[in-house]
Amino acid sequence: MAELFQLENVSAFGYTAEVKQLKLVVQCLPDNADRVIDAASEAGAGIIGAYRRCAHITHGQGTFFGEEGSNPAVGASGRQEAVSEARVEMILPEDRANAVERAIRKVHSYEEPALDFFTLRGRKEQPAGRIGTLPRPMPLQEFAVLADQTLAVRSWTWGDPSRMIKRVGVVGGAADTDWMDAQRVGADLLLTGEVKQHIAVEATESGMTMIAAGHFQTENPGCTQLRDRMEKAIPEIQWLMFTPVPGLSGRPF
């Protein structure tokens, strides 16, 4: 939506969900470390911001005594062994723990790999809202017309029609409670999909203007861009954009 309205100097704002994080610690043979890191990365570990395959490796010594029936990758069972090992540390979302563990066990050279998961402080996800500056300021009444034309919708608008709009916050779906966050970062208006009556009362009494343009109209632009990104990332699959006819599947007429 920020692109559709040609917003400039766009930045994120609003509610962010907190994702529980874990730290993986696994010991392996030094020449097995790259395979372990690759497998864990493909399963969702080692992502820090815009960086992937993030891992820390330290080297030390591990000891073991293999009981009868064991089959150690280095040394022999029935005696005390000491081997050089690499300690690999990576972070991951809690919900990827099982997948990461399975991936590591498939490539680990040990019969019984030692894996530990430590709980970390939660990490904030990317906020859903975006705020930016219009190419030129315009009255709310004019922007409401622009919103209807841009999104092909008949929207609901709250606020003084003559209020000049320069900074616009946009959030797809039912994000009316983000109006205070939008106001705090300098938005003159919040454009979202759905606005409840009591929220509209609170916002307008605080001097905020709001537009409700519907779920389909405010969410579909993001779905279209997601399809384009998936096609670029995995071109061997045909990615189709489902657009329901007006009146069905949540799309109003």
Provide a descriptive summary of the structure in words:
The chain is an alpha+beta fold. The chain folds into two domains: 144 residues, Udp-n-acetylmuramoylalanyl-d-glutamate--2,6- Diaminopimelate Ligase, Chain: A, domain 1 (3-Layer(aba) Sandwich); 107 residues, Alpha-Beta Plaits (2-Layer Sandwich). 26% of the residues lie in helices and 32% in strands. It has six helices and ten strands. The strands form two sheets. The protein has a six-stranded mixed sheet with strand order 1-6-8-9-10-7. Helix 1 packs antiparallel against helix 2. The longest helix is centred in the last third of the chain and has 19 residues. The model has no long low-confidence stretch (mean pLDDT 94).
Question: How would the blueprint of this fold be written?
Answer:
Elements: E1 8-13, E2 18-28, H1 33-42, E3 56-65, E4 80-93, H2 97-107, E5 115-124, E6 129-139, H3 140-151, E7 156-158, E8 164-170, H4 179-184, E9 189-192, H5 197-205, E10 209-212, H6 215-233
Parallel strand pairs: 8-9, 9-10
Antiparallel strand pairs: 1-6, 2-4, 2-5, 3-4, 6-8, 7-10
